[in-house]
Amino acid sequence: MSTNLETTNLKTDEMIINMGPQHPATHGVLRLILKLDGEIVRHVEPVIGHLHRAQEWQGQNRTLFQYQALIDRVDYLSGMFTSLAFAHACEQIDGCQIPPRAQYLRALVCEMNRISSHLLWLGTFLIDLGALFGFPFYPFREREKLLDLFEEIAGQRMMFNYIRIGGVQRDPKPSWFEKVRKFTAEFPDRIDEYEAIVTQNPIVLKRTKGVGILDKSVAMDYGVTGPSIRGSGINYDLRKTRPYGIYPELNFEIPLGQNQGDTWDRYMCRILEMRQSNNLINQCLDKMPEGEISGKKQIAGLRIKAGEGFSAIESPRGVLGCYVISNGSDKAYRIRWRNPSFCNLAVLPSLLIGRPISDIMAIFGSIDVILPDVDR
Amino acid sequence: MSELLNNDLNSTDLARENAALISPELADTVTLTSIDKAINMLSQIVSPIANLARSNSVWPLTFGTSCCAIEMMCVGMSAFDISRFGSEVFRATPRQADLIITAGTITRKMASALITLYEQLPEPKYVIAMGACTITGGMFNDSYSVVQGVDRIIPVDVYLPGCPPRPEAILDALLKLQQKIRTENYAKRRVQAYQQRPVCYVDYDCGRPLEDLLAMAMEDTSLALDQK
Question: What are the residue ranges of helices labelled H in chain A?
């Protein structure tokens, strides 16, 4: 499409267009300054920081126990993962033992959260492509079921505060596990339903096939992680390459993009990941051991030993890192986050240049950036 | 009826009341038309009907910055279905919207954009401050970059607490706003629109209005030029 536009001899002037910060498709408050030649994007400058809430600074001014409740807001679509990264870093410093039941519960809720995050991405991605109010009802229907399950164990729909330093917060009732089993039993059919509508849809194929091709070398240079890099065919998933928790005991394969790494590949990669996560939930449920759920007393004056710890986990958007320095008091001395969305956003200008303006939202939607994760 | 319309502006109590509402700066630019006068006369009858119509089609702006925006998205979906109350039409441009739901933290960098959006909304316009962050600063109440309550920069009609509030709470806030719309006087609201002033921009570092700072800067430049 763009090649036709390139070869015409129309004389066009360069135009600067400001996109955002209030824009329905930027998933928050991203501002893009676009230089356009006709319809072709010539230069992109993302302006970030519209949602800088000083998350790291707040971590140094609150006790660890208080900060645990706050970190779900770092990446609100996958609160379990931010809690897990922080808990891993603190446990590395403290050296406390995590009971096996807590380990399995952590993996279970994390995979459930991965599905709910990808479901929301699926709905908003199709909204970005123009399927306003029609298709998005389908993924949100399953997401509500997952949120109800989260609400039962954590008491909140999105800000869970469930994974704590040393273990998890509550032991679910046996009836909860039955509900999860019921969900996983019917979920593959639901994914088939989405795929029947979207995957071979001619409009979706035209909007996504061959659009926003992310080269392997470019992706590695920019430090892109998560489904965005796996869509390009690079097998990089921390659950396999640098296993943590109980993932070595689980049996799974990492889905990779089959083609050159375009928008459609990234879409397909996430769909396959949802099936994979559903499988992992079933395995966790089967192997769930009995026993304690926390290796550390959950009290307001929670303290950890002095030292430094770094943890990296695979969140739905990519590698989420947390670096904690503790001086032995109830507050952390320094907290630093390595957020996947920030690095994934950096690759956006190189994907957009030379593409028509209508592709911006298809490409931006496919790399799945959320803005509080970028700005912190 | 025609007698009433031909009367002088100050002859009826209602008109006098409304004339007092118009600010002196705008008195010579804004005049009440005969349609306005007719609406004033009939406001006792017109208001309930017009308000009923307006309250059942409040169109929100798609303004979401963070976590609350996801719950605002959920409320539009089939599980909660905001279209039962006539507000499913989320508009992307402020020119077509009636309501801003400030879904998510407003930072100082975002504040000017929010003020611009508020000023671009056509009258009558309403604001729901959604979430603890936009009411008082919430969990980020000691953060250096967060506006400590959105009511410091724009007027707020309904406060909706929660972090984030449940979708049912959004519906509850919408119903409260509808109640507010139904009980207001349509004619007075129209006259108040004439009285509306632009929002005052305040510098966050020193807390002084930007107009004053600009005047000071211009004075300084003129002094420097004089010295040359």
Answer: 2-7, 55-61, 64-70, 79-94, 100-128, 137-154, 174-198, 202-208, 216-222, 227-231, 238-241, 263-287, 340-346, 348-352, 360-366, 371-375
The verdict on residue B183 lying in a domain is: no
Question: Domain range for residue B174?
Answer: 60-178
Within 8 A of B64 by CB-CB distance, chain A residues are 28
Q: Determine whether the interchain pair A157/B71 forms a contact, defined as Cβ–Cβ distance below 8 Å.
A: yes
Separation of alpha carbons B209 and A70, rounded Å: 34
How far away is chain A from the Cα of B146, in angstroms, using its nearest Cα? Answer: 6
Residue length of chain B: 228
The ipTM (two decimal places) reads 0.84
Q: Look at residue B101 and tell me if it is in a domain.
A: yes
Q: Which residues of A touch B107 (CB under 8 A)?
A: 49-53
The answer to whether the bond into A255 is cis (omega within 30° of 0) is no
Q: Is A18 on the interface with B (CB under 8 A)?
A: no
Q: How far is Cα B178 from Cα B58, in angstroms, rounded to an integer? A: 8
Measured in residues, chain A has a length of 376
The tens digit of pLDDT for each residue in A4-29 reads: 555 566 666 788 888 878 777 667 78
Number of domains chain B contains: 1
- Order of strands, edge to edge, in the sheet holding A14-19? A14-19, A31-37, A40-47
Which domains, from first to last, does chain A contain?
Answer: 55-375 (1.10.645.10)
User: Distances from the Cα of B73 to the Cαs of A117, A157, A249, B103, in angstroms?
Assistant: 14, 14, 37, 10
pLDDT digits (tens, 9 = 90+) for A293-346: 888 888 888 888 889 999 999 999 889 999 999 988 888 899 999 989 998 888
CB-based contact A79:A86 (threshold 8 Å): no
Which residues in chain B have their CB less than 8 angstroms from residue A136's CB? 77
Query: Cβ contact (<8 Å) for B69 and A136?
Result: no
Interface contact A95, partner B, CB < 8 A:
no
A376 to chain B, closest Cα gap in Å: 11
For chain A, helix (H) and strand (E) counts, in that order, are: 16, 8
Inside any domain, residue B156: yes
Task: Report the residue from B69, B107, B163 with minimal CB separation from A52.
Answer: B107
Query: Is residue B139 included in any domain, yes or no?
Result: yes
CATH number assigned to the domain comprising residue B103? 3.40.50.12280
Angle at A90 between CA A88 and CA A96, to 5 degrees: 85
